[in-house]
Amino acid sequence: SAAAGKVKAQKYVLTKYFQGEPKKSDFKIVEEELPELKEGEVLAETEYISVDPYMMIYMNSRKLPTDMIGGQVAKIISSRNQKYPVGKYVSGYFGWRTHAILNPDARITQPGFVPVTVVPDLGTHSVSLSLGVLGMPGNTAYFGIREIIKPKPGQTIVISGAGGDVGSHVGQIGKIVGCHVVGFAGNDEKCEYLEKELGFDRAFNYKTVDIRAALRDSCPKKVDCYFDNVGGEISATIMDHMNKYGRVGVCGTISSYSEETLPKVTIMQPVIVSKELTVEGFNVNRWTDRWNEGILKNLNWLNEGKLKYHEKVYHGFDNMVDAFVGMLRGDNIGKAVVKVK
Ligand code: NDP
């Protein structure tokens, strides 16, 4: 049926400014009755919503109240667009909501973000992978390696935030390229997973080791490429252990996403000068026009068994905030997602 009328959607609205991490009571779940579909539109029912670090930056920079932003994968349950029939899965930035009316032909749903994409045939893989290894984080790893840090076989790559979705993926591509790969992550379980399951040469718990000693021990030929997900002091220490003409890809600075943890950092410019480092920040949306190249490359590696993933799945729309806060605290190995339906 083409009628979307009477469908009630639920959505999260952030209503309070918070310190540190958000609480459930900082949000309201609001119900809204959706209008009838117009020509070209589809009604999509959410299956999985992603929780990602960038949401913290979003929440801290908004005038409230504001609808929550977020990537999700949804099934079309009603359609007035022949190219997008009922039953197809789409992904995009539809927000923390249970249903959305979309016009997939309109290129932009959220300025600066990748538009609505149809989930390609993933075979037996879960559609939730469109939010992780076969979605935005997977493409961050793929393009970040290929276009920014450009490692050569035999070189040494160090990754901070290595136990998360982007970091664990970067390390595996590093191994595919033929590099020596070292990661830093927030607990021993993640480090064991990175070494035993994903083939990292070494992984260290940054909360318990001496970073400088760990680098001396694990990177005897020093560091050629640094994939930075964290920023702050750990990055200063790693950059100090780099080779001349090393390359730093600044992907994220999660150590500074909350005002309370804003780090005071050692000045890095002297080491950038003396080692003649290339330091480049990037946003994965730079490659919107090559989006499917990354997805399909990662899918191939997955099917060839060269790429593995791990998901922490939270259940229920009511648990969005728990999932988000859990991700910030490091509870997830790999990707954190919420199964809504
Ligand atoms: P993750 O799955 O890695 O989740 C975030 C992890 O960061 C936490 O689980 C935690 O793991 C770690 N963390 C949290 N706070 C701190 C802290 N103060 N210091 C060090 N580590 C901390 O997330 P993603 O893989 O999705 O993203 C990783 C990074 O990549 C983020 O910085 C994100 O913003 C960035 N990103 C950038 C993109 C771009 O286009 N530039 C696109 C996508 C992601 P633990 O402490 O246990 O290691």
Portion of residues in beta strands equals 25-35%
Cα gyration radius (Å): 21 Å
As a percent range, the share of helical residues equals 25-40%
CATH architecture of the largest domain: Alpha-Beta Complex
What does the main sheet amount to?
7 strands, mixed
Topology as a string of helices (H) and strands (E): EEEHEEEEEHEHEHEHEHEHEHEHE
Bound molecules: NADPH dihydro-nicotinamide-adenine-dinucleotide phosphate
Average pLDDT score: 94
Runs with pLDDT <50, length 5+? Answer: none
Structure summarized in a few sentences:
This protein has about 350 residues and is α/β, with parallel strands linked by helices. It has helices spanning about 55-60, 135-150, 165-175, 190-195, 210-220, 235-240, 270-275, 290-305, 320-330, and strands at about 10-15, 25-35, 40-50, 65, 70-80, 90, 100, 115-120, 155-160, 180-185, 200-205, 225-230, 240-250, 280, 310-315, 335-340.
Question: What would your notes on this structure say?
Answer:
There is one protein chain. The protein has 341 residues and is of the alpha/beta class. The protein has two domains: 8-132 and 310-339, Alpha-Beta Complex (Quinone Oxidoreductase, Chain A, domain 1), CATH 3.90.180; 136-284, Rossmann fold (3-Layer(aba) Sandwich), CATH 3.40.50. It is 25% helix and 26% strand. It has nine helices and 16 strands. The protein has helices at residues 54-59, 136-149, 165-177, 188-196, 211-218, 233-239, 269-274, 291-303, 320-329; strands at 8-14, 27-33, 42-50, 66-67, 72-79, 89-92, 99-102, 117-118, 156-160, 180-185, 202-205, 223-228, 242-250, 278-281, 311-315, 335-339. Strands 3, 5, 6, 7, 8, 15 and 16 form a seven-stranded mixed β-sheet that branches. A six-stranded parallel β-sheet has the order 11-10-9-12-13-14, with helices on both faces. Strand 12, helix 6 (233-239) and strand 13 form a beta-alpha-beta unit. The longest helix has 14 residues, at 136-149. It is globular and about 65 Å long. The model has no long low-confidence stretch (mean pLDDT 94). It binds NADPH dihydro-nicotinamide-adenine-dinucleotide phosphate (NDP). Residues 52-54, 137, 140, 161, 163-167, 185-187, 190, 229-230, 251-252, 254-255, 261, 282-284, 327-328, 330, 332 line the site of NADPH dihydro-nicotinamide-adenine-dinucleotide phosphate (NDP). NADPH dihydro-nicotinamide-adenine-dinucleotide phosphate (NDP) is lined by residues 52-54, 137, 140, 161, 163-167, 185-187, 190, 229-230, 251-252, 254-255, 261, 282-284, 327-328, 330, 332.
